[in-house]
From TrEMBL:
Presence of keyword Cell membrane: no
GO molecular function terms listed in the Swiss-Prot or TrEMBL record: methyltransferase activity
Superkingdom of origin organism: Bacteria
CDD domains, per the entry: AdoMet_MTases (cd02440)
Protein name: aklanonic acid methyltransferase
Keywords, in A-Z order: Antibiotic biosynthesis, Methyltransferase, S-adenosyl-L-methionine, Transferase
Annotated EC: 2.1.1.288
GO terms of biological process kind: daunorubicin biosynthetic process; doxorubicin metabolic process; methylation
Family annotation (InterPro entries): Methyltranfer_dom (IPR025714), SAM-dependent_MTases_sf (IPR029063)
Catalysis: reaction(s): aklanonate + S-adenosyl-L-methionine = methyl aklanonate + S-adenosyl-L-homocysteine
Subunit structure: Homodimer.
Family: Belongs to the methyltransferase superfamily. DnrC family.
Species lineage: Bacteria, Bacillati, Actinomycetota, Actinomycetes, Streptosporangiales
Protein role: Involved in the biosynthesis of aklavinone which is an important precursor common to the formation of the clinically significant anthracyclines such as carminomycin, daunorubicin (daunomycin), rhodomycin, aclacinomycin T (aklavin) and aclacinomycin A (aclarubicin). These compounds are aromatic polyketide antibiotics that exhibit high cytotoxicity and are widely applied in the chemotherapy of a variety of cancers. Catalyzes the methyl esterification of aklanonic acid to yield aklanonic acid methyl ester.
Species per Swiss-Prot/TrEMBL record: Microbispora oryzae
């Protein structure tokens, strides 16, 4: 699949789920976005760019920090996500928030026009993330920083999901995915520089950054119930698996996940899972 076709598929997936994204009784992207902004620590009056902003899990907390004297621009490939952000900004009265449909791979924005570039679980979807990160250095003012989050990739673990999910998703189901979306293909793409911290640091240094800091810590994923989690999974990256499964296999996977998650829950309360997340901070080297 060429990069244009890949981007169209990603945009369609998130366009279709925009109205329900991060709004279905599951808390994950919102607390992760808040933590990302805490680590980025944008100051009052600073200018923030959020690449792959989704519905604004990082964008709105950043806008609150920079205040009326600053601004926060969110960009996303999916027009429906951008419309959701604009509607939320209007409802909140967030005059310092702007959202645009734009390719995060190479945003056509003025040089040195931002102090912080954020990426909440978005850098991993770029076709060539190291090249994109090198372009962001031109967008950053002196002393600016890029701060992004990603899964903690581990050998033998289903990418993008907590380790507890690996035994719940049979390998036979993955054969229904297009080759480029199968776990082994995703691992080859992302683990080449994101899994090993040394590789990650060297990649960012080659891209024009210094003082690279890598922090791995859990973010709590909280779901009202296993059923809620399964419904929510249709609105994020796992939607790619769901939409390629035949009806019988889709029903089987739904049952397996609900049963497995119910065992993990161990009672009648909410389902709470610690999700390993990698937070990366790097300052532009000039």
């Amino acid at each position: 699949m060429d990069s244009s076709a890949y981007k169209r598929q990603v945009a369609v997936v998130f366009d279709d789920s925009a109205a329900r994204y991060d709004r279905m009784g599951v808390e994950f992207f919102t607390p992760m976005g808040r933590r990302l902004v805490e680590l980025a620590a944008p100051a009052e009056g600073e200018r923030v760019l959020d690449v792959g902003c989704g519905r604004g899990a990082s964008l709105f907390p950043a806008a609150e920090r920079v205040g009326p004297a600053g601004r926060a621009l969110g960009i996303d490939l999916a027009p429906a996500m951008v419309e959701e952000v604009r509607a939320e900004a209007a409802a909140r009265g967030s005059a310092n928030v702007e959202a645009r449909v734009m390719d995060a791979e190479d945003p056509g924005l003025p040089e040195r026009s931002f102090d912080v570039v954020l990426g909440g679980y978005s850098v991993i979807f770029l076709t060539n993330a190291p090249e994109a990160l090198s372009r962001y250095t031109r967008l950053l003012a002196d002393g600016g920083r890029v701060v992004f989050s990603s899964p903690v990739f581990r050998p033998g673990v289903f990418p993008f999901l907590p380790p507890e999910f690996t035994p719940l998703i049979p390998n036979s189901l993955l054969e229904h995915l297009p080759p480029e979306w199968r776990p082994e293909a995703l691992v080859r793409r992302f683990n080449s520089w994101l899994e090993d911290t040394g590789d990650l640091e060297r990649t960012l240094e080659r891209a024009g950054y210094g003082d690279v800091r890598v922090l791995d810590e859990p973010v709590l994923m909280t779901a009202e119930s296993p059923e809620r989690w399964v419904e929510w999974s249709h609105t994020q990256g796992m939607r790619l698996l769901w939409q390629h499964l035949p009806p019988r296999q889709r029903d089987d996977l739904r049952e397996r996940l609900i049963e497995g998650l119910d065992r993990l829950r161990g009672g009648s309360g909410p389902l709470v899972i610690q999700v390993p997340v990698r937070f990366v901070t790097a300052w532009v080297a000039r």
